[in-house]
Amino acid sequence: MSQIISIKGLSKTYKSGFEALKTIDLDIEKGEIFALLGPNGAGKTTLISIICGIVTPSSGSVTVDGYDIIRDYRATRSMIGLVPQELTAEMFETVWATVSHSRGLFGKWPDPAYVEKVLKDLALWDKKDSKLITLSGGMKRRVLIAKALAHEPSILFLDEPTAGVDVELRNDMWELVRRLRNSGVTIILTTHYIQEAEDMADRIGVINNGELILVEDKRELMRKLGKKQLTLQLHDALDAIPASLANHHLVLANDGSELVYTYDSQGPRTGITHLLTDLAEAGIRFKDLDTSQSSLEEIFVGLVRRDR
Amino acid sequence: MNLPGILAIYRYEMARWVRTLLQSLVSPVIATSLYFVVFGAAIGSRISEIDGVPYGAFIVPGLIMLNLLTQSVANASFGIYFPRFTGTIYEQLSAPLSPIEIVAGYVGAAATKSIILGLIILATATLFVQIRIDHPVWMAFFLVLTAITFSLFGFVIGLWAEGFEQLQLVPLLVITPLTFLGGTFYSLSVLPPLWQTVSLLNPVVYLVSAFRWSFYGTADVSVEVSLVMILVFLALCLGAVWWVFKTGYRLKS
Questions:
Q1: Do A84 and B92 lie within an 8 Å CB cutoff?
Q2: Which numeric CATH code is attached to A227-293?
């Protein structure tokens, strides 16, 4: 895959002195879904805003498909659609008018057939003549997406797209994102919902305090940082872990009624067989067992904590 | 050039105007009609002719200017302030539009609206008084030039304002007094010499004077001087807009 966005040495310090972005280097691959994860105030929106031309960078450069975002702003901005975090839209306009307006702003002549397709894809067609002020929050969010797609962009930025959206709409939205990706659109999204990044993204970047802590293929990330735990519920509670089991690094939990074994599920040897043999030899019986994998959320919280 | 973009802004602004036609068109026309009734018919009948023009007809160019100035400023300032206030400005800023194109869309629409309004007020005036236009081409020229200049001025105010109060401040505290003291209802020659000199500091004097000249061929200030003053003000407004976009003042952080 080739790069569609290339960010080099990008930084932003606001007039107030707040350093929103320290030096950011990042490449976005063409056609991928890239999730930018980070707590509030980490710099996600500032990064997106710079690429879209809303915020001026303090230093560094960004190219989109080889074009510089400042020198060749017409070329880069024509390629980009932005769905902002806030539900800001022309409240007294109809859905049809506001989406058509967006298409025009981005330099495209009217194409009612295309706008109709976008509205139908987003289940907004029956609302096309409704004023935005009469729509629910979820519907307004869809309108913002329709506006961002109105000029047929090849890159779509979604800044916290599912904040305040119900489960059904969220699923619809991700379905749409998948369809867009399949049609070749590159998608960069920021989210608080780690589950979404886990479900949707190809690659994940974690940003905290204006710094990209890590950028990794999602599966690689899960594999690298994804520990698995085996919990054994014991027949008889233990006061302490027998010396013969010391090399397994077990942890006693739940008042001695559970033994927890942590292992790398992707490793060549998990050590489970060995552990079970040793347990049998030590005469420790168990009534149930359970395995669990650390989620991206745990990985994320761990990373952000470590960075503090 | 992003022509669809300019047209999108222009159409959007015009559509907003049509939606609020009662406020944007009917109310200034009613207000102006009342001026004609009060100043033209009731009081005007007791005032002698000024420079050979009946008082009712004399005030017509000034009244058109009064509306042209206030509406140009109001339309353009609100047009750009509202998206800043609601946050929808993100779209214009992220669109492939140059500053000139954004200004062309907003200022073009604001000027169009006030020119239409000016012409409607002119038509309304003919119902009350008899009007003569000696230099129609110059009349149209001054109408368009003033509408564009003050729409630019309004655009700057809309960028500067940080609240609805500030948005009203300049039209209320600057434009209206300047217009009333700018010879809308009188000829400068009726003022004491000192106030005549002070009045020359008021840019509206030149606008009203030149515009009235295009109607009746008489002016308080020579037309050439007026034209230069209007162009200077236009250049100042253009300079301010250029500076705003260059620095990103109140637009980009």
A1: no
A2: 3.30.70.1560
